[in-house]
Design goal:
It is a single chain. This protein has 7 helices and no strands. By secondary structure, the chain is mainly alpha-helical. The chain has one domain. The longest helix has about 35 residues. It is flat, with a radius of gyration of 24 Å. The mean pLDDT is about 90.
Length: about 200
Amino acid sequence: MKRFLALGLLALVAAAPVSAYKILYAEQWYKLVHRHLSETSDDALENIYYLERALRADFANPLNALTPIKNEKEWTRYRALFRMHVNLLLVQQTLILGSNFDKQQAYFYNYPWKWANLDSLKKAEQIYNNALGYWKDALTYSVEAANTPPLWFENLQFWIDEQNRIETGELNYEKIIGKQLERLNKVRSDFEAMGPQTY
């Protein structure tokens, strides 16, 4: 009798609805981003998904921000820095994703797979161009943050450093992505020049 009662109780507990934690705010999506020592394209795609959701989501109440917010000026600067930082992370993750499709060099023994390599380079080029879009958005939010009074955030010094590096030109992903695209075009022309005589 006790067994039936225990099994019945266990069945009721197992059938009870389980409440899930609903992700609503930009900060919650941002906290889901994770980095590994060796990142794969799956990791990059997952992070890109979380970061894009963070950009589309509303911000949490200033009481629940990633750093203490005391007034409206801090709140305005915090939001601009957050969006700038998320766009910079999107650039980084997109570059990681693109590098998985990019061929660094056209080796002569790759001729039998020439079409596959050219297709892979086309995908890498599209991904790098997407990274340029994220970079332009990061520049926009960097300018917006620069137009707010300089304020100190105790937990977000890295974001302020990023904004300062963008402002001074020390951080310029457009130049980095441009070099990647230049090299990619050279590799593409090397693949296109391949023929049975080069194999």
